[in-house]
Amino acid sequence: MTAFRLGTQYQHGAIIVVTGAGLLLVGAVAATFAGGLAQPVPALWFGLFITLGEVLRVTLPGDREVAPLATAAGLAYALLGSYGGLPTEHTVTQVVAVVGVAVLLGAIPHAAAGRGPRLEDMARRVLVVAFAATLFQLIVAAVNRPAHLEAGWQAWQKALVMVVVVTVTLLADAVLAALVRAGDQHAPFRAAFRDEVRALRGISSAIGASGMLIALAAQAMAVWALPVFAVPIMLTQFAFRRYAAIRETYHQTIRSLSRLTEVAGYTETGHASRVAELAVAVGRDLGMTEPGLTELQFAALVHDLGQLSLREPIPGGATVIVSRPEQRQIAQLGADVIRQTGVLDGVATIVERQAEPYRRAALLADSRVPLGSRIIKAVNAYDDIVGESRRPERQMEALERLRLGVAYEFDPRVVDSLSRVLDRLRGSDRI
Questions:
Q1: 273 and 351 in one domain?
Q2: pLDDT, the chain, mean
């Protein structure tokens, strides 16, 4: 197993982020080595806590790898104006060198255990701290230039500048994360950025606040500011870890439920997972938000649950070959079962409406049919025709049949998106 996971499709966004961080780190380490390490004691302590934070990194829902303690300590070091009552002397290059080396050291235990962290996530953490340090020192230099401030920088001014720097830095981090995710998942950048802001706003707020508190407290408390103010971020990280574990258990339960129709012989093996994978890819291509994609994935996995009520299985489980009233009955019965959970009403609605045409006569589109239902309707019909076949002519035949139904049955936007997704998957040799 590789120590550092680059992924099967390492996209341009990730390449830019990793290359930029790598070149920056090499230059920073070389400059720091040539000029010597200023104030090595705080550099050592902050580096130690960053390393510890990397060891304790956590993966959040959406496959987001974060290291809250490491990022908070790195931000604190970038915002450090004084330490133990003495002004700090470290430069931006030293901040980058200390943080970068600590991040790499913290990845060693994971690499040794075969759980190599993603390079793009590590690179983002280095770039974010470098950005914060540069912005902070530029603002400090500009604010301290007027004569009436030469005697010193007031505490409220420093706190205000820290808030501005951290806010802008966290937005920059969301931009980098969206750049990587949009390239990796072929999602629109705007939708990826919106999802990153929504997904990380809770943990990012805790990281930013902890970084500022550590930097402010270190003026008087020196090294003790790190363990004292690291406790809240550790508790927050523990809570997010528990939340991520619960979400993962939830996903596994839905996946197990989706296999009931396969085990009972009502659908072909792998049908639900294929429909779910393609549906999420189409939804992402159309700019759906991450919560919407989660509901879409769940609905796609259990969209055939209503077939368990049939006395005789449909040949091959292909609902595309049965009449519309039968399709509606299957969809309705499946939705009724899902609603019994009490927490998946959105998923139930998507499943219930999957048999409806996207528009009716004299209507541009039926507003009662959610986008998720339209996606599942088209993707399910495609997989009913193609199945596990990898023959290009079979896939083209299925798309042509869908295009013949775009007048009323299938949403043309969805069919066009499905075609684009299939072209990308074909180019990556995944189908």
A1: yes
A2: 84
Token duo for residue 163? 């808030």
Is 70 within 8 Å of 43 (Cβ atoms)?
no
The structure's pTM equals: 0.76
Q: What distance lies between CA 15 and its chain's CA centroid?
A: 17
Is 417 within the bounds of a domain? Answer: yes
Indicate the SS3 state at residue 15: helix
Q: Contact, 100 vs 126, CB < 8 A?
A: yes
- CA–CA dist 299, 331 (Å, integer): 11
Q: For residue 431, tell me if it sits in a domain.
A: no
Residue type, 189: F
Amino acid at 149: L
Give the integer Cα–Cα distance in Å for 348 and 332: 9
Residues 168, 225: Cα–Cα separation, whole Å: 24
Round to whole Å and give the CA distance between 267 and 124. Answer: 43
Q: Are 306 and 331 in contact (CB under 8 A)?
A: yes
Category of 16 on φ-ψ map: left (φ > 0), alpha (ψ -120 to 50) or beta: alpha
SS3 content of the chain, % helix, strand, coil (to 5): 70, 5, 25
User: In this predicted model, what pLDDT tens digit does every residue of 328-340 receive, in sequence order?
Assistant: 888 898 888 888 8
Domain match, 284 and 172 both: no
Residue 7 pLDDT > 60: no
Residue span of the structural domain in which 236 resides: 12-246
Residues 29 and 174 in one domain: yes
Compute CA 59 distance to the chain's CA centroid, rounded to the nearest angstrom: 10
Residue type, 18: V
- Note the Cα 429 to chain centre separation in Å: 24
Residue 280: inside a domain: yes
pLDDT of residue 344: 82
Axis crossing angle, helix 271-285 with helix 371-386, rounded to the nearest 10: 130
- Work out how many domains the chain is built from and give that number: 2
Maximum pairwise Cα distance, the chain: 88
Residue 6: predicted pLDDT: 39
The helices-and-strands tally (H runs, E runs) of the chain is: 16, 4
| Helical spans, DSSP H, in 186-224 | 189-221
Work out the number of other CB atoms within 10 angstroms of the CB of residue 14. 24
CA distances (Å), origin 266, targets 259, 319, 431: 10, 10, 24
Task: For residue 427, name the pLDDT band (cuts at 50, 70, 90).
Answer: low
Are residues 422 and 300 part of one domain? Answer: yes
Position with higher pLDDT, 87 vs 303: 303
Give the end of a domain, one of 197, 222, 246.
246
**Can you give the C-alpha Rg of the chain in angstroms?**
26
In this structure, what CATH number is given to the domain that contains residue 338? Answer: 1.10.3210.10
